[in-house]
Amino acid sequence: MYKNLVSAGACALVAACFLTPALAQDSKASASVPEPLKVGFVYVAPLTDAGWVHQHDEGRKAVEAALGAKVQTRYVENVAEGPDGERVIRDLAQQGYALIFTPSFGYMEATLKVAQEFPKVRFESITGYKTAPNVAAANARYYEGRYLSGIAAARMSKTHIAGYVAGFPIPEVLQGINAFTLGMRSVDPKAQVHVVWINTWFDPTRERDAAMTLMNQGADVLAFHTASTAVMAAAQERGKLAVAYHSDMRSVAPDAQILAVTHQWGAYYTQRAKAVLDGTWKSGNVWGGVKEGMIRVEGFGPKVPKAVQDEVLARQKDIALGKLKPFAARAAVLDNEGQVVIPAGQSLSDEQILNMNYLVAGVQGKISK
Q1: Per-residue pLDDT tens for 84-135?
Q2: Residue span of the structural domain in which 201 resides
Q3: In this structure, what CATH number is given to the domain that contains residue 349?
Q4: What pLDDT, on a 0 to 100 scale, did the predictor assign at position 368?
Q5: Do 106 and 221 share a structural domain?
């Protein structure tokens, strides 16, 4: 047996000595190929054909398309905010994911906590606002698209009443409701917006029920800040109109869709992955809108006249050029309890927008507790 082991060892040595130069070179080349950057994504709801998670997954796909073999991506879907979010974020870090995107406001604290444990991992808190040396924050100015969609909704409404299905009363949602209302009232001073809070991001049944309630209250156009397509489907079923959010939803509501307010993450996600790869990643806080290409209105439905489409697209250009600011006031803007929130001739600062905690005049409803 000992003899056989010696012979086997000798054969292996001889084989190694007679490797051709080409094979030896290939072996060296494969050894020098760097490991791909592992990029993780945590999704707060299931991945569907449209909606919040869909848009972020389009961003993930854009990273793969742009960087190819340099990256390896993975997503975990339907992860609740809170302890589950923290667990999944930590698990990705433990598995060697060097860049982790957490696109939901409720992941912010968990992201910061896990980041302290993994100082060499880079984290991107999407829709969060707190940062750390290895945690960057990024968000989009969704309210710009909301204002534009309000113009279109007012032009299309016959009852002067819009319904708004809202998730949680965080500043981002309040910004959207208020900008939508101000957009409507910029072309229809009689416009009213009725709000129903459902205190969840993703619950198609509750989203649908809220939409039905609003239509029963006279709303003939709908908007929403939740994660599914349920509101669009409800509007289609009842022969009403609705503004799609996150994604173009004409596949669900071909007749009901007025337009879609979409957010685009591919360029930002790709830029951040490249920065990790080339060693230039730094923490920061990005808040981009129409001008930066992160927000746009698109996907006008078949019932929207060309004149309305042209008007909305012209106002979109004005926002991109800085000529139009949704939270700037010619006349004083009041909240729906009669207090001045934007004095005449003034506009809100970014800090004031980010800390918004009221509903403007024209909104029928209160902030959910």
Answers
A1: 999 999 999 999 999 999 999 999 999 999 999 999 999 999 999 999 999 9
A2: 142-263+294-364
A3: 3.40.50.2300
A4: 76
A5: no
